[in-house]
Write a structure and sequence with these properties.
Layout: E1 16-18, E2 25-27, H1 46-65, H2 71-75, H3 84-102, H4 109-116, H5 125-145, E3 154-157, E4 162-165, H6 166-192
Antiparallel strand pairs: 1-2, 3-4
C-alpha cells in the first residue's frame, strides 16, 4: 500500500490511521489533526502562527510521551544521551533566552544562572512539567507581542553578539523547540524499554 507523503502532516500522534480501502489518512474519532491544521491563530502573523503551532505540537507530544515517566526515568541518561529532564529544562529556559534576544534585551543574571543548571537532575516531575508549561504559555504571549516588530530588525545573540534578526530568532524558536522535543521523546522511549 502506498501512503501519501503527507499522511503524517494530516494526523497527530496516534490520531489517524491509513485506510485499507483508499490508502489515505483518516482521522480517528475524537482525535485532532496537528495544531497547524486546526484553523487556529488565524488572526496572527503567519510566521508567528507557525511558531505558536510548533510550540503547541511540542507541548502535546511532550505530555504524551514524557509526562508518564517516573522521576527516575526523567533523570536517566542513556549512554551519552542527555536525560529527558535536561531536554525539558532546556526547552523551557532556552525559550526565555531566545525571546529575550528577539525582544532586543540582554540576558539577566538569573537567566545565565538557570542555563548553568540545566543538566542537574530534576527534583520533582511535577515541578519540571510546571516549569515547562509556564514557559510555553509565557512564550506564546511574548511571541504575540512580537507581531508588530520588524522581523528584519537586527539582533545579537550571546556574549559574542552573533548577528541575526528578529525573524531569525522567531523561526529558530520553532526549530530549536522541535529538535529538543524530538530528543526528549526518543530518550523517553529508550528509558521505558529498560
Amino acid at each position: 500500500m502506498l501512503v501519501s507523503e503527507f499522511s503524517h502532516a494530516m494526523c497527530s500522534a496516534g490520531g489517524c490511521q491509513i485506510s485499507e480501502r483508499t490508502g489515505e489518512a483518516e482521522m480517528s474519532e475524537g482525535k485532532l489533526p496537528e495544531p497547524w491544521l486546526r484553523g487556529t491563530w488565524t488572526e496572527v502573523n503567519p510566521v508567528v502562527r507557525a511558531v505558536l503551532h510548533a510550540l503547541e505540537l511540542a507541548e502535546e507530544d511532550l505530555w504524551k510521551w514524557c509526562h508518564p515517566l517516573t522521576l527516575e526515568q526523567l533523570n536517566a541518561a542513556s549512554g551519552r544521551i542527555a536525560p529527558v529532564a535536561f531536554q525539558l529544562q532546556h526547552i523551557a529556559r532556552s525559550l526565555d533566552r531566545l525571546l529575550t534576544y528577539a525582544e532586543g534585551g540582554p540576558l539577566s543574571e538569573g537567566q545565565l544562572a538557570a542555563l548553568k543548571t540545566e543538566l542537574e537532575p530534576a527534583s520533582s516531575a511535577k515541578e519540571l512539567f510546571r516549569e515547562l508549561a509556564v514557559a510555553l504559555e509565557r512564550s506564546k504571549e511574548r511571541l504575540l507581542a512580537l507581531q508588530a516588530v520588524d522581523f528584519a530588525a537586527p539582533r545579537a545573540v550571546g556574549t559574542k553578539q552573533l548577528p541575526t534578526t528578529v525573524g531569525g530568532l522567531v523561526v529558530h524558536i520553532a526549530d530549536h523547540t522541535q529538535r529538543h522535543a524530538g530528543q526528549a521523546i526518543t530518550t523517553a522511549k529508550i528509558v521505558t524499554m529498560r
